[in-house]
Every structure is written in structure tokens, then in C-alpha cells.
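Q: I'm writing up a methods section and want to include an example of the input and output format. Could you take the sequence below and give the corresponding predicted C-alpha cells, formatted cleanly so I can copy it straight into the document?
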Amino acid sequence: MRPFDDISTRFAMEEVKLSSNLSVGTKRRNSPKVKSAATDINAIGGENEIVEKLVEPIRVYSEKELIKELEKVAAMLTPEQDWSVRMTAMQKIEGLICGGATEYACFPLLVKQLVGPLSLQLSDRRSSIVKQACHLLSLLSKELLADFEPCAEAFIPVLFKLVVITVLVIAESADTC
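A: Here is the clean output for your methods example:
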């Protein structure tokens, strides 16, 4: 037996363990009822654990309904609102995206109206709000691609300010975003 055989066997076993966990997560992600919003991989004590945050898709059946929903969300994203209300509002945007709102031609224009309120969420002192806002921006950029570019240009200065913040969760979220 070579000295590295034991190490490579352990590595292979951990890899199989991780990949089997990932396959379980992907089965859930493809479920028609619930779509995975984020998958975080945490290394705790040498074991890999997957935590999924699920967001219910919100279906809208007309542009008028979509406009109304996003106006409600924009009103919920004011600094005067409690942080839990603002968190719910950002999750609602995510639910709309998962529900197919990006298929409407007016969606990129409506997102431009959310640049101000989302920038305020990025500047918040609560790390969970900043983390959710960064996740939402990442999702929007993946869904809208080139249509998100004008919005991205507005978010970049705010994100650069966050990267140098000493609160690790905020800095890492901004860097990932």
C-alpha cells in the first residue's frame, strides 16, 4: 500500500458524500412548486452541509398585474419600513422572477425603477438585508443579462463601498455580487 492511498480514498469518499448531497439539492430545485433561491455550502468541522432557502414562485398574468406588484414592493423598500418588511419585499421580487416575470417586456424597465430602493438596501447596516440585496442583484443579472447592464452601472459604486466594510458578511456578499 502506498502512503497516499489512504488520503486519496478519504478524499474520494468525501467527494462522493458531497456530490450525493448536491444531487439531493438539485432534485428539490427542479420541483415545480418551489424553486431554490440560494444554496450555501458551509464547512463546519470538516463536514460539508448544504442549506437551501426556498422562495415560492409568484405568478402574474399580465403586465398590469406585474406593475402593481412591483409598485407595492417599491413602497415596502423605504428606509422607514422595518427590516423584516424590506426583507420580505426583496424575497417577493425573487418570487416574481421565479414565477416568470422576466418574460414580460416591461420587466427590465420596472427594475430600473427599483435601482434607488435597492441601493438603499445595499447601504443598510443590517448584514442580512445587504446579503439578500446582493443575492437579488446577482439573480437579476443572471436572468436579465444585457438588459441589466444599465442598472448594474448604478449599483457598482455602492458595491465598491461595501467591499471595504469590515463586517465580513457584508464585504463578502458585495464581493460575490
